[in-house]
Amino acid sequence: MEGSKERQGDFVFTAKEQGEYRFCFDNEMSTFAEKMVDFEIAVENESRDAQLPSKQGTSPEQTSALEESILKVSRDLSTINRNQKYFRTRENRNMSTVKSTEGRIFNFSVAESALMVSMAGLQVFIVRFFFQGARKGYV
Q1: How far are the Cα atoms of 28, 34, 89 from residue 4, in angstroms, in the given order?
Q2: CB distance 36 to 27 below 8 Å
Q3: How far is CA 44 from CA 67, 86, 115, in A?
Q4: How far apart are CA 65 and CA 62, in angstroms?
Q5: What is the mean pLDDT of residues 88-110?
Q6: How many CB atoms neighbour CB 93 within 10 A?
Q7: Cα Rg for the chain, rounded, in angstroms?
Q8: DSSP letters of 63-83?
Q9: Entry pTM
Q10: Distance CA 17, CA 120 (A)
Q11: Rounded CA separation 118/107 (Å)
Q12: How far is 13 from 22, CA to CA, in rounded Å?
């Protein structure tokens, strides 16, 4: 799996063998800029080895209905958890954008203020130059 210059993406990896796998993220394109990496691993088609213990005196239909209900709650909780992670990641990314924009606005404001002060000083210098000694006749 390879991706280049991508802000976000979905990658699917199918494991051929059972065991441990490692992920490597590379930042050689831009080593100067700090990056934040957030990823989620979802396991699909996993076998369900755990079974609920059945009570004596309950029918298999009741136990299976309970299992279905528990699995539905589990899926819903997983969906909520994924959504929370997504929104947290999105908030972090947007906060980074806000901080960057805030810094640019501050720098622009400082430069604009310095330019206004220098223009005011230049105008004072020009007006004084016109009204100095021998130049009074020109005005």
Answers
A1: 11, 16, 20
A2: no
A3: 19, 19, 61
A4: 5
A5: 91
A6: 14
A7: 33
A8: HHHHHHHHHHHHHHHHHHHHH
A9: 0.46
A10: 74
A11: 17
A12: 12
For 56, which DSSP code? Answer: T
Residue with tokens 């990496």: 37
As a whole number of angstroms, the distance between CA 76 and CA 135 comes to 86
What are the structure tokens assigned to 8, written together? 């976000």
Please report, as a single letter, which amino acid is at residue 97.
T
> In sequence order, what are the residues at sequence separation of 6 or more whose Cβ sits closer than 8 angstroms to the Cβ of residue 35?
27
CB distance 138 to 130 below 8 Å: yes
66-80 burial string, b = 16+ CB within 10 Å, else e?
eeeeeeeeeeeeeee
105 contacts 111 by C-beta, under 8 angstroms:
no
Q: Give the pLDDT band (50/70/90) at residue 138.
A: low
Looking at residue 50, its amino acid is A
Q: Which of 109, 133, 131, 113 is nearest to 121 (CA)?
A: 113
With a cut of 90, say whether residue 12 has pLDDT above it: no
